[in-house]
Amino acid sequence: MDITEYFSLVFSDYTLRTITLGTAILGAVTGMLGSFAVLRKQSLLGDAISHAALPGIAIAFLITGAKDSNTLLLGALVSGLIGTFWIRGIVKKTHLKSDTALGLILSLFFGFGMLLLTFIQKQPNANQAGLDKYLFGQAATLVESDVWLMAIVTGLCLFVLLLFWKEFKILLFDADYTKTLGFNTKIIDILITSFIVLAIVLGLQTVGVVLMSAMLLAPAAAARQWTNSLSTMVLLAAVFGAFSGVFGTAISASQTNLSTGPVIVLVASVFVFFSFVFSPSRGLLFKQIRVIKNRRDLELHKTLSFMYHIAETHDNISHPHAIKLLNNFQGYTKSTLQKLVEKDYVKLEGKMWRLTETGFNTAANLYTKQSTDDE
Amino acid sequence: MNSAQIEIQLIASLVAIACAIPGTFLVLRKMAMISDAISHSILPGIVIGFFITHNLNSPLLILFAAFTGIITVVLVEYIQKTGLVKEDTAIGLVFPALFSIGVILIAKNANDVHLDVDAVLLGELAFAPFDRLLISGVDVGPKALWIIGIILLITVTLLIAFFKELKISTFDAGLAASLGFSPAIIHYGLMSVASVTTVGAFDAVGAILVVALMIAPAATAYLLTTDLKRMLALAISFGVLSAISGYWFAHWLDASIAGSITTMLGLIFLLVYLFAPNKGIIAVMYREKQQRTEVSLLTFLLHLKNHNEFEERHVNHLREHINWQKVRAKTVLELATKNNMIIVENNIVSLTEKGDKFTSKAIDYIITNEDAQIEDMKDDFFLFRG
After folding, report:
1. CB distance B4 to B12 below 8 Å
2. pLDDT at A316
3. What pTM value is reported for the model?
4. How far is the C-alpha of B96 from the C-alpha of B101, rounded, in Å?
5. What ipTM describes this predicted complex?
């Protein structure tokens, strides 16, 4: 199947429609919440939580003995939350730094989850097959009820976000000020963290443990480059996330043997790369262009000021001088001279140059401005 | 115990030691998450190495994988240096992308060979003794033992040779640079060791256990000591202890060895986290409570010093005016009486001579903020703790 065929089928084919909708919603909600994670410098929290959810899945299965996906997600949610708050406890109460706490909880919880999974596999209950789809994720297992669940969570999340927008925003940029204003920062904090955990848990089934953290980060990191406003960033991240979901699904459906999760992550990475390079105000390309332009301006001014110092010694400012004289000066090139002529600062006559009135005045201003700056 | 069991425990212990050494420095340098990133992003290196050599046992694979590990570090640093995102975001962007490339390469090209993502991520220590190293037909032991043994040997040699450099650059990068050690060389050296160790170990124990063995013992040791040598020794001991106890736990449960070693690491961390003498949660909470009482006591003494009126110094007034709960008021009163700071007569509290002197000193300190004043007060405070 090629891409065009995919797009013609996406509205009629049940499986394709479900998966596309699911990944799009997932991308939107993770992008939205990921913006907060990135701005709060909790980027790797997603990685830790998605690993920490595994023992919860295993324990939920051990208790109920059934593979109902909602029960398993509930288990994942509980153990993800325990992991998150333990990370917070470690950072707060000990001198271990947040990266150590994250890595610790991530690996320990995941290892414990693996122990439980292998223990379950040895049980005579034949029902356990497929638990490991939570490790790597399988978008193909999405059914309509999963999509509904995602949609409901996204709606809820959007509602809470709009309701407490002011609080979230102020907590993000000035936590101390928020406290002095009398807001209960703890509750706002717990609220946003819980939603981040919830979004991650929702994505486990689709893109899996390892790639979930990228889903949280990449759209937000891409969106950050285009704007300085929080609302625009959240909106853009949601759009980037949704598009990554749709394009990723389309590409993986159009090829055989291509799992959806990794493709979605790579599409999101392309968004990030594009944003890093081409964003107008922060992007690497335009930044480099600005650097080059500034350097040129500087060289031009340096040459002009050198000429000014020569012209200064004569009564007639437009007294011609040999071009050879300029060779003593390092910043001078043929093209800078040409530029100066274009700007009408300098006139060329054969092998001689002379400053014009405008050139002299500009250079004089340049000089006085510099010296007043120095004072 | 049969020979396979001994070999498994030996491999697990060597892996634990080989991981604990770079892990200690990663934790101290606040780069713990780099190990997680490396453990995932070596996947494409292994896959590409496999396409080139067509041999899963080739040592070239280790080189390729270690090289991908270094690329990860370089990429993270490059992205971070552009200033577009913070370091943690840079890590979070790089390794899932590389991991995805690895997964896709496997799915597209290597479906028919024994190279699946599960094996890379989870590893199976129980199979390690079956993969023997044959030198001209003679069985010289499991291959994993040789690989990790050699890596450990290199790590220990480097550790001893560059201990001073590592120590200085870890705690004071500026000093290290001014003394003429290149922080960049030490940084990349450490990253290379971490990368090679990850690759060498994950084959036997899986990527997640490598991360656990790097971070958990070092973090646990860091809660017990601030001395670098002691921290290294403790981290190694915790690693080996969990490796061996974890093996027997797995044996008893008939479950994944890597999983149960990690669980043991977690249990040890939990115990130390709760009960460590100075930095454990219980010690910290006790200390915080004591400090709260001491601050309350100081507030109370200052209040007494400022008021001569009887009604302001009545016991009940504590609850009304300073707004203390009954229990807290009682603790503070008892502590003050026990230290001869106050006397209570007919429910009227007054400062003793000692209390008066102490309070004057405290006011002096608060006004002048000179350290010389607080030295004597510290002695007085230690008296409170009895």
Report:
1. no
2. 75
3. 0.85
4. 9
5. 0.85
